[in-house]
Design goal:
The chain is of the alpha/beta class and 234 residues long. 29% of the residues lie in helices and 32% in strands. The longest helix is centred in the N-terminal third of the chain and has 21 residues.
Length: 234
């Protein structure tokens, strides 16, 4: 049975069909909006979902995001010999990878990355709002010394206004990471955050699980799912 959810997110180069209100920038994309993903999103949005189930089903979505992020890394041809003695013309990933989680909610995505890439190094960035200036401020950063030579999967499950994510990317750029080597992964995004993020950094790639309707007057994603970090870790 097909999902009743209509495809609402298109690339900027595509024409939006009737009923579609969200057009993604060229450097942003969603996971395929399948019935399976729709079902997973339904579970983690439900406020009555237990913490154990929230973690389990969120991890499934996060794994899909990490796998999709890896799809966008460059590859080079590689020939191997199979167990039957025949040659197979395949590919091998090019370059080195690391993950950078935006604390604390982004740490929920580290396990999926390690399960996909055992040797991937993980960095952490803590960004909080300065109460006096109302601006995102860096409080802590622990990143691989050679991060400028790596592709970076930036991890944060929620993209609301984009303030924290934009600050995190600025930190990566200051450490020498090329913008086009940054892939930002998140479970749920607001259109306002996507516009801010992709407008500021047109050469990075943003991959989200789902795009919601909007931000409310308190800058919460709606319909949203609540505070991801609290539901995952508390």
């Amino acid at each position: 049975m097909a999902s009743p959810h209509k495809q609402s997110c298109l690339l900027a180069s595509e024409q939006a069909p009737e009923g579609c209100t969200i057009v993604l920038p060229p450097n942003a994309l969603t996971l395929p909006q399948t019935a399976q993903l729709h079902g997973l999103m339904t579970i983690i949005r439900d406020k009555t979902t237990s913490r154990g189930d929230f973690i389990f089903y969120s991890d499934r979505v996060i794994r899909l995001l990490v796998e999709e992020g890896l799809n966008h890394l460059p590859v080079v041809p590689k020939t191997v010999m199979t167990a039957t003695g025949e040659a197979y013309e395949g590919v091998s990933f090019q370059g080195r990878l690391c993950g950078v989680s935006i604390m604390r909610a982004g740490e929920s995505m580290e396990t999926a990355l390690r399960e996909c890439c055992r040797s991937a190094r993980i960095g952490k960035i803590l960004i909080q709002r300065n109460e006096e200036t109302a601006q995102a401020q860096l409080y802590y950063a622990k990143l691989p010394e050679d991060i400028a030579e790596r592709y970076v999967l930036l991890l944060d499950p929620m993209l609301a206004t984009g303030g924290s994510a934009i600050k995190a990317v600025e930190v990566l750029l200051e450490r020498g990471v090329p913008e086009d080597k940054i892939i930002f992964l998140n479970v749920l995004a607001a259109p306002e955050g996507i516009k801010a993020m992709c407008g500021r950094f047109p050469h990075l790639k943003l991959i989200t699980g789902w795009v919601d309707q909007k931000l409310n007057d308190r800058n919460y994603i709606v319909p949203g799912l609540g505070d991801f970090g609290d539901r995952y870790f508390s």
